[in-house]
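User: Can you model how adenosine-5'-diphosphate sits in this protein?
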Amino acid sequence: MTDSGNTPPLRPGRLPIPGLPSGIEEGSVFRSLFIAYPDSLLLVDQSGHIMLANPSAAALMGYTVDELVGLNVDVLVPDSIRPRHASYREAYGRAPRPRPMGTHMELVAKRKDGSEVMVEIALSPLQDHGLPFVVAAIRDIGAYPRVKQALQRARYSEHLAQLGRLAVDTRDLQVVLKHVPEIITTALQVEVAVVWLLDNNRLEFRVASGVGLIAGEEVGMRLANRPDTPPGFVLSQGRPVVVPDYRTEQRFAVPQAYLDAGLTSALAVPLSDRGRVIGMLSVRSKEAKRFGDEELRFLESLSSLLATSLQRVQTEEALNHAQRLESVGQLTGGIAHDFNNLLTVIQGNLQVLGELPALAQDAYAQQLVNAATRASRRGAELTGKLLAFSRRQVLQPMAVDTHALLHSLADMLRRTLDQRIGIEIDTAPGCPPVLADPGQLESALLNIAINARDAMPEGGILRFRTEMCDALPAVLHSPHSDLQNPAHGRFVAISVADNGTGMDEEVKERAFEPFFTTKEAGRGTGLGLSTVYGFVKQSRGGIVIDSKPGQGTTVRLYLPLLEAADPPGVEDEERPDETIAPGLRVMLVEDDAEVRNVVHTFLTTLGCEITTAATGEQALMAMDAGGVAFDLLLSDIALGPGMRGTRLGAEARQRFPQMAVLLMSGFSSELLDADREVPQDWELLRKPYTRSELARAICRVMAGRA
Ligand code: ADP
Ligand code: MG
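Assistant: Here's the modeled complex, given as structure tokens:
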């Protein structure tokens, strides 16, 4: 069937079909083939217009054959690709070459209704009658399992990325929580998605957010954490749980409401924060056996992303909280410092006023002075509380009679704690005094007692006990303990036992961590035991917790016994002023002129010879001048911008070893480290103080010198 001569051009359409039975027209065979072909076939001209389309193409693209013919192929590509598509097509027209199937040319085609379909396209240039045509064979590959899976993965990662972006962009946990179930239901195309969070006490789950929640299940709803509930079961497993069919589920009780809502299968994964389960994500579907490996992987990735952002938000909150406390602490510390200076001036002047000969006999004047003195003392108590909050106190260890302290504490607790809590005391008779700051010790014990009360909501027994022991228990020689502390010597152990809920290992382990609390917001700060821990360590003691869930808790504080050689004695209270040797030569260093005047007056009435200085440098110069051999250096610690009182004291000790040193402080925020700065055997006088307190302190340091 050649047209002419010996060189027939190769025109595929005109090749004879070997073995075609005679009588069957070649053209009709090709037409039938074109119509019956399972792939979509389009014949497209140079300008991209469709010349021929087979029914498969019409079915795939959602048009009729007639509609397709005459359309430009560019219409069949998604809008986003269309501009590029025309130039691809033109480039192909300039250098056409066959491009078969299987070359992973996976593309997206756009149907008439706008939906998209994943296709593979083969192109064959066709030279017929000298006209350039292209045959496009298009295959719907969206139905291939491999492709389906890849598509699904792509969609899942897109959704994961969406949550990732959200988690990075927003600092609001509620927003993240709200979006998670929406993302899950969209990605997995399921009816229900729920985020459950476990309460701090781990006794209850709470619905944090959800989509498609069934009747009776709403955000904020609480559910007891029991292994026979769906979330409780997942928690007890600690790993993902697939429920192929609720109707045959045996491992936990399926709420009737799930079945009533027509839900059939489910998938749940735990939400964990550094190995600790804090909640879970669950999805439910009306289809049976809806969830496979892909869904599981998706949900797991989502869960770890969510846990990370939960953790981040919480860390930031804790940090903010800590910073807030820190700045409030600094503020109150600063205020208290200034107040103490004012109070020193007020109290001192009142005292001087009260002793003026003109007023000494005036009963009415005395009454007024006394009232003002009482008020200023209350002011001093108030600043003390401010400092207790800011934890900026300088510890003033002294002899503490634990027996007396526990009895007075118990009296107070009996009046203030729940009536259903019985308080018992069992103190070792004749237990020698310990060396500790009594105010701090009392507040430490109070903290422990309040924890015990919280652990006994229905009442119980709170038992205080003291006993002597020779050394700190072995457990304290762990990396947690301060190895610099002398662990030997004799101690008094004060134990506080309750028969409340007790703690599990994890809580016990973290109980001393600042901000660790299992109590709900507003009830616990997590700072109780951490401050107790700090106090006890600073006091060269130790603390241990003995506790088991359901078996109560015993917290035991170890405090060092007051060494026999240690000077501070309780009887100091009664020592009269006049034990100060007359003519004591004092170098008084104080930067606040008003305070300096008051102290000067005190010292004068105590019979001292006084030289004053406003700075450490001035004081050193005066002492070096050698005119006077000073007996005592009495210095404030914070001396404005210059040398601090602690430095001055150290210098003085070195240059004039016979000189006694007494430091005063309004324990400002600068004194945060005073307990470290000031050697243990240095006397420290807290502002504000009365003349007799000053006198007693001077007696103590002078006695120490002798
Ligand atoms: P807070 O009391 O503010 O929670 P704490 O530092 O005082 O902070 O205690 C930390 C945690 O230790 C508590 O939240 C609680 O879980 C646990 N805990 C402390 N004391 C007890 C106790 N007596 N019984 C049970 N748990 C306790
Ligand atoms: Mg507490």
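A couple of observations from the model: Residues 447, 450-451, 528 surround magnesium ion (ligand 2) (CB under 6 Å). The radius of gyration is 43 Å.
User: Helpful, thanks.
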